[in-house]
Design goal:
By secondary structure, this protein is an alpha/beta fold. It has eleven helices and 18 strands. The structure holds pyridoxal-5'-phosphate. Keywords: Isomerase, Pyridoxal phosphate.
Length: about 375
Amino acid sequence: MRSTKAVINLAAIQHNLSVVRLLAPGTGVMAVVKADAYGHGIVQVAEALTDVEAIAVACLDEAIKLREAQIKNPIILLEGFFSQNELELSLKYDLQTVVHQQSQIDSILALKPEQYSQKKLKVWLKLDSGMNRLGFTVDDYSAAYSQLSNSVLIDSINLMSHLACADDITNPMNQAQIGIFKEATQSYTGLRSMANSAGVVAWPESHFNWIRPGIILYGCSPMVGYQGQTHGLKPAMTLQSQLFAIRNLSPGDKVGYGSAWRAKEKTRVGVIAIGYGDGYPRHAREGTPVLINGKKYPLVGKVSMDMLTVDLGNDDQLSIGDKAILWGKGLPVETIADCSDTIPYTLLCGVTSRVKFEWVTKNPDEG
Ligand SMILES: Cc1ncc(COP(=O)(O)O)c(C=O)c1O
C-alpha cells in the first residue's frame, strides 16, 4: 500500500505552546487553528490545546465544526461574521467575533435584543493600524466603539489590531503600528491583542493582554530566515513516504518529465511515492533535500503528480521500502519552503486529502 502520510505529533504542539507561554508570560493565548489548524487537523489540534484561554478561527464553519466536536473554549471569529444570519449563529454557538467594518455594527444594532435576551456578544473591535486590510481607521475607531457600547446586545468590547511586517526585525512599521494601536485604544478599558507568532517572538511591546500565535504552535519560526529550532520549537507535522523504485543510470541518462535532469556520472535514482498531488511543491528546486534513513539526498528532475526522484549516488545501503521524510522531524519545512520560493504556511496548509493523516502524542525528541 502507498504509505504516504502526514504524522501529526500533538505533543509537539503542546510543547510549542509552552514555548509561547515562556515568550509572552501573563498573556491570554488565542491559539490560531484556522485553515484546518494550518493543515494539522482542526479538531485534533483544538482537543490537544484545551488549556488555552481561547481558540481563533477564520470563519463560522470552522467554529461550528469545533463546537460540534464539543470544544468548549471561547472561540473567536477573526474575520467576523459575514451576514446577519452568521451573527445569529455566532450567538447561538457562543462565539466571539471580530468587528472590523460598519456593516457589522449595523447588523448588531439591527438585532432585536428581546429575541436574544439570554445571549450577549463579546466583540473584538479591530483597528487598522497600517496594514490596510481589515479594521476601522484611527479616525473612525471611537465612533465604532461608541455605537457598540450603546448596544444592549454587547457584553464586552476588546480591542485588536494586526501587524503587517512582524516577521522582519528591521522593519520600522512594527514600532509605528504598536504606537498607533496604543494611542488609539488608550482611553478604553477593553483588553488588547496585537501579536501574531512573529509579534510573540520579536516584539514584546505588541504582547498586550492577548496574543494570537499560529504558525509557531506548529513548530515553525515566524521570522524570515530562521527555523523553529532556533526558538526551541518542535515540528508538529512530519510528511513522509517511501522509496518504492530504484534505477541504475549511466552518464547522460535523463530523468523524468522534460528530461530535466541528466546524470553526470554513473548513479542510482530513487523514486519516492509523493508528488504535487499530495501537496509537495511542484516548483521545488533541484537539490531540495529529502531525508532517507536519516541522510539527505537531493531532489533531481521535475516533481510529478504522484512521485519525485532523488539522486542516491552510489549509496547501496538504501533499498525499496525505506522511509523518506519530505519535511518535519530532521528536515525543517522552512528549508523546503526556501527551496520552493514559498513560505512554510503554504506547504503545511497544502497537504491534500489523498495523504493519510495520523495523530500521535509522543515525546518530540524521541524517534
Ligand atoms: C488576525 C490574525 N491573527 C493572528 C494570526 C496568526 O498568524 P501567525 O500564524 O503568523 O502566528 C493570523 C494569521 O494569519 C491572523 O490573521
